[in-house]
Amino acid sequence: MKKIKNIAVIAHVDHGKTTLIDKLLRSSTQFKEKNNKENRIMDSNILEKERGITILSKHASIFWKKYKINIVDTPGHADFGGEVERIMSMVDSVLLIVDSLEGPMPQTRFVTKKSFLYNLNPIVVINKIDRKNSRPEWVLNKIFDLFINLNANEKQLDFPIVYTSASLGTSGTDLKKIKHNMIPLIKTIINHTPTHKIKKNTNLKLQISQIDYDNYLGNIGIGKIKSGKIKKNQTVYIKNNKNKKKIGKVNKILHYCGLEKIEIKKSNAGEIVLISGLEDIEISDTICDKKDIKPFPDLSIDKPTVKIFLSVNTSPIAGKEGKYLTSRQILNRLKQEKSKNVSLEIDYKNNSNTFCISGRGELHLSILIETMRREGFEMELSRPKIIFKKDKEKIYEPYENLIIDIEKKHQGSIMNFIGERKGDLKNIISSNEKNRICLDYNISSRALIGFRSEFNNITSGTGIFYSSFYKYDIKKNYKIGQRKNGVLISNKRGKALGFSLFSLQERGKLFISHGEEVYEGQIIGINNRTNDLTVNCLSGKKLTNMRASGTDEAINLINPITITLEKAFNFINDDELIEITPKKIRLRKKYLTESERKKYKK
Questions:
Q1: How far is CA 370 from the centre of its chain?
Q2: Nearest 5°: CA angle at 292, between 287 and 294?
Q3: pTM metric for this prediction
Q4: Distance of alpha carbon 517 from alpha carbon 422, whole angstroms
Q5: Of 75, 392, 497, 527, whose CA is between 20 and 30 Å from 257?
Q6: Can you tell me the distance from the alpha carbon of 3 to that of 215, in angstroms, rounded to the nearest whole number?
Q7: How confident is the model at residue 309 (pLDDT cuts 50, 70, 90)?
């Protein structure tokens, strides 16, 4: 029987976490050669591969001599922090990865703070030491400062350090003695991760930290066995802190062997297992035997900060492109998502076609909507709104820590732009690159809705920004975040013609091209001015029976702006909606006719 070590890998976005896990898996004696062709193996979700980020927490294990190391890959983006929070309950240590050039970033602080709340001792990995201008000693000092700022105890401050280059597959505990393999890192994990102490004659206790779904096995609960042992076909009690108690039977037990799930007959304390057969389980439920049915405390998950309203598609061309259209189908899909995504909240009323979905940020919500879109759903979405907290007579709103990395030539315009959004500048940090600078702000989450598109325009796509939740503070009485430019609105239904679009190009930038079907009230472009403009994009050139050289001008249409879900969230105002179908993302006014819009304004 191998000794088990459970470790979570945490990091800021793009600090090399998933690439490092790839190299660790390849070092395992159980890793199969057929997997060697694929990079970032852990990013198995299609959206993860497209965007290059980790969205869902995933498990794997590596075997080294007499040890089995269970590794949990966690997301690096703040919007998926709920995935990180519940993973901490099933591991014994964390592998904190920090970029050797950038150092600790906002999400580094967030994930480290969560690990300290569970009293976990970190192993610090300074990654990308092969980068030009890397500064590992400076990064190490910044990590130490961060730990002190987070009130780390003596053990946590006495952390082991490993230097790596995940892309090259090198590691070492000394910068002067770097080896061309991952063995120094594996040895550090084994030496500094506590082994779960197995006590004899203890009762079964297992807390569900994640839920997966399989077409054949149904709901699968994932968690670490805290005490006792679990066997196939064992009758167990399912208990939570809402005084609900159920009895179930364990049909199958699986564990991770490399990337594969292998069925086993029984498992002991300390192991992370997957169990099927318990259909009604929820995250935080305690699985136990009848001798001890006291549940563990519920897993602590931060509350959502952003909400959107999702409703059945009501546009004139609804039902032509989607497979799932009804409120019942949408509700069933949202309930399925809620069972495994605990940081998501869904509020709905009976006989209503509208659902309020709350999440940790725009990206958190957009990933869900994009997944549903690809599955064949049609729906309409409102503009994201911030969730306020009320305490007696005061209203509080969420604030975020915003770090911006820009070229120095854009500093004045960016500071003016964020100043208009009431951002509070805390620090100006010099960058390693001569022509770049970092700005550190505290800013209302309201101000970050619609922020990305304007930020990219000002910096010509060269700027980078990161944000993470900071705190709730008293709401300020000012309006921020609404788009300044008006829009071009179609006045009829039909197919857009190039002749009309050519003349409309002078008015603004278009979202549609020749031959696209449009309807009355659909937004077809951005107006150069601040007012909304209703236009005709369906009229063709009037024909005559006179022909003369030089009377026909060539029509040169500029390529339309491609609308993605994130762009749409950032673009629309409160009186507009996003129409989502599997084939197209369209923008429209809430009130389709001009007369209805005038009544709404009054």
A1: 12
A2: 70
A3: 0.80
A4: 41
A5: 75
A6: 32
A7: very high
pLDDT, one tens digit per residue, over 314-323 is 999 888 888 9
Instruction: Name the residue among 368, 401, 400, 398 with its Cα closest to residue 386.
Output: 398
Rounded distance between C-alpha atoms, residue 362 and residue 468, angstroms: 12
pLDDT 10s digits, 375-389: 999 999 998 888 888
Q: How far is CA 587 from the centre of its chain?
A: 23
CB-based contacts of 143: which residues, under 8 Å, 6+ apart?
96, 98, 103, 104, 124
Give the Å distances, CA to CA, from 544 to 541, 547, 550: 10, 8, 15
**Residues 471 and 443: beta-carbon distance below 8 Å:** no
Cβ atoms of 304 and 344 within 8 Å: the answer is yes
Q: Which residues of 417-439 are buried (b: 16+ CB within 10 A; e: fewer)?
A: bbeebebeeeeeeebeeeebbbb
What's 165-201 look like in SS3? Answer: ECCCCEEECCCCCCECCCHHHHHHHHHHCCCCCCCCC
pLDDT tens per residue across span 35-82: 455 555 655 566 666 666 666 677 888 888 888 899 988 876 666 766
Kindly list the distances between the CA atom of residue 453 and the CA atoms of 20, 209, 464, 569, in Å, as whole numbers in the listed order. 32, 36, 12, 10
* Among the listed residues 303, 315, 381, the one whose alpha carbon sits nearest the alpha carbon of residue 576: 381
